[in-house]
Amino acid sequence: MVAFFGMTGSALMGPVLPDMVDPLNSTREAVGWVMGIFTLSNALFMMLLGTRIDNLSHRKVLVISLTVNGLAGIAGFFAPNLPVLLVFRFIQGIGTAGMMPLVMTMIGELYESFERVHAMGRVSMTTSVGEVTAPFIGGGLAGISWNYPFLFYGLTIPLAVVAVFVLPETNATPLKRKTGIYEVVLALKNINVAYTIFMAFALFFLLFTIIIYVPFLLKDNFGFTAQGAGIALGVQGASMAVVASQAKRLSLKFSKKTITGVGFAVMGTAIIGMAGAYHLPLVFVLLLLFGIGFGVLIPFINTLITQVAPGEVMGGVVSIFNTMKFVGMTASSVVLGLILLTSNLETVFIVSGLLGFGVVLMNYFVYKIL
Question: 63, 170, 243, 347 - which has most CB atoms within 10 Å?
Answer without folding.
Answer: 243
